[in-house]
Amino acid sequence: MRERAIRALREGEAREDVWFVTTPHEYQRYLHQLIAFEINTFEAVSRHIAEFSSMPWEFHWDMACQIRDELSHLEMWLERSHMRTVTLGLDPLSTHEFAVCRGHGLLGRLALLERLIEASALDALVLSRCFWEMRHDRVMVGYIDRVQSDEICHVRQGNKWLRRLCRDDEQILSLVEKIRGGVS
Q1: Do 106 and 55 meet the contact criterion of CB atoms below 8 Å apart?
Q2: What does DSSP assign to residue 112?
Q3: How much is the pLDDT for 92?
Q4: Helix 138-165 crosses helix 170-178 at what angle (to 10 degrees)?
Q5: Pairwise CA distance, residues 70 & 109, whole Å
Q6: Which residues contact 76 (CB under 8 A, 6 or more apart)?
Q7: Other C-beta atoms within 10 Å of 30: how many?
Q8: What is d(CA 58, CA 161) in angstroms, rounded to the nearest whole number?
Q9: Can you tell me whether residue 181 is helix, strand or coil?
């Protein structure tokens, strides 16, 4: 299904009425969701630093770099929302990242946030990029390209720390290698 949708978008065969952003209100909700995602991810990664203070300095540096990226993404989406006169606060905030991370140790959080959520975002970004290309919106395509590049780095960081933290557990280590999603 995913590959068919991407192919249809790239070949110009997709009908716009099947996409989730067809009205100004849907566009506002779309930007609001992007903004909420960045804020929630920023908080979740900040909590990695605060709640796992005994981790090595390099871990804190990697997480701080991810926070910087999330803030940069937030700035882009906020800029875009102001260009389109989007009013924030009309749609509920997502608490998905908090629900995913709550009650898990560092391994679980890294696996869920950096590997599952960030890696899943890569698929969504491919579809979004095709959608905005079809609409000839170069600004959104540029923003999505930037976010996609950063998300690849976040997945790599998650893989790196999962490997380090699981180096004595062959079973988990083999799972990390098996599901790395094409990102080292």
Answers
A1: yes
A2: I
A3: 63
A4: 160
A5: 17
A6: 143, 146, 147
A7: 21
A8: 10
A9: coil
Q: Show the tokens assigned to 119.
A: 């890696």
Q: Max CA-CA distance within the chain?
A: 53
Q: Which segments within the chain are labelled E, that is strand?
A: none
Dihedral angle over CA of 125, 30, 142, 124, nearest 10: 0
Is 18's pLDDT higher than 80?
no
Token pair for 183: 């990102």
Nearest to 102 by CA among 40, 180, 19, 33: 40
What does the mean pLDDT of the chain come to? 81
Q: Compute the distance between CA of residue 47 and CA of residue 144 in angstroms, rounded to an integer.
A: 26
What is the C-alpha separation between 147 and 83, in angstroms, rounded? 19
Residue 1 has pLDDT above 50, yes or no: no
User: In this predicted model, what pLDDT tens digit does every residue of 124-142 receive, in sequence order?
Assistant: 888 888 888 888 999 999 9
Taking a C-beta distance cutoff of 8 angstroms, is the pair 127, 5 a contact? yes
Q: For residue 150, how many other CB atoms are within 10 A of its CB?
A: 19
